[in-house]
Amino acid sequence: EAQVTQNPRYLITVTGKKLTVTCSQNMNHEYMSWYRQDPGLGLRQIYYSMNVEVTDKGDVPEGYKVSRKEKRNFPLILESPSPNQTSLYFCASSSAGVGNTEAFFGQGTRLTVV
Amino acid sequence: AQSVTQLGSHVSVSEGALVLLRCNYSSSVPPYLFWYVQYPNQGLQLLLKYTTGATLVKGINGFEAEFKKSETSFHLTKPSAHMSDAAEYFCAVSKLGNDYKLSFGAGTTVTVRA
């Protein structure tokens, strides 16, 4: 089954404690992105990657890092989480630009930073 | 920068009634346009998209949307609501030639009354 898998689904952590949210896709997609969803703001892109070792900032990259060492994986790293990073996070992948292909989304990771 | 405006954060309809969700975009060049649906505790699923060609686009689950360039709108409709249509709906755009990023509206939550 084609899918984008995020882990964990739920996470409560304390301010400053480094964490990683993993994202893996089994569709051999080149494009991958991370979004955060906040009430009243919709989804905003954090980082994206167009291929292995190719990443770039989205609209709200501050406080986040990513890496793309393998095509299937695109982890999101919070080096020093803060309460304003409490949000619902989604990973997405597509085989090409979203104008030509469908973007597939993971089920989300709900992060709470206290 | 592109922006997407969804009018109405909450819409309540009776089962069997018309569903109308409004979306306007701001862009000097018509972008790619999308509607996504998010069911509770799930990721986003593509309902339909407009890239080029026919301006009336049919999607899954009986939804359709019409691209109106003169009004910079891409409203979503369904003639007869079902209980299963209760979800959050997001309008999104991407830029021609730069379609690795989706810009989302704030979302509209639909409730369906029996």
Number of strands of chain B: 11
SSE string of chain A: EEEEEEEEEEE
Helical stretch count of chain A?
0
Q: How many distinct helices of chain B?
A: 0
Describe the main β-sheet of chain B briefly: 6 strands, mixed
Largest interface: A-B, 26 and 25 residues
Query: Which term fits the overall shape of chain A?
Result: globular
User: Termini distance of chain A?
Assistant: 36 Å
Q: Detail the poorly predicted runs of chain B.
A: none
How big is the Rg of chain B?
13 Å
Helix share, percent of chain B: under 10%
What structural class do the secondary elements of chain A suggest? mainly beta
Give the key terms.
A: 114 residues, mainly beta, seven-stranded mixed sheet, 11 strands, 0% helix, B: 114 residues, five-stranded antiparallel sheet
Q: Could you describe the 3D structure shown?
A:
The complex is a heterodimer of chains A (114) and B (114). Chain A is mostly beta strands and 114 residues long. Chain A is built from no helices and 11 strands. Chain B has strands at residues 3-7, 10-14, 19-26, 32-38, 44-50, 56-58, 64-68, 73-78, 87-95, 98-104, 108-113. Chain B is mainly β and 114 residues long. At the A-B interface, strand 4 and strand 5 of A face strand 5, strand 9 and strand 10 of B.
Strand and helix map with partners:
The complex is a heterodimer of chains A (114) and B (114).
Chain A: E1 4-7, E2 10-13, E3 19-25, E4 31-38, E5 42-51, E6 54-57, E7 65-66, E8 76-78, E9 87-94, E10 104-105, E11 109-113
Parallel strand pairs in A: 2-11
Antiparallel strand pairs in A: 1-3, 3-8, 4-5, 4-9, 5-6, 7-8, 9-10, 9-11
Chain B: E1 3-7, E2 10-14, E3 19-26, E4 32-38, E5 44-50, E6 56-58, E7 64-68, E8 73-78, E9 87-95, E10 98-104, E11 108-113
Task: Summarize it.
Chain A has 114 residues and is an all-beta fold. Chain A is built from no helices and eleven strands. In chain A, 0% of the residues lie in helices and 50% in strands.
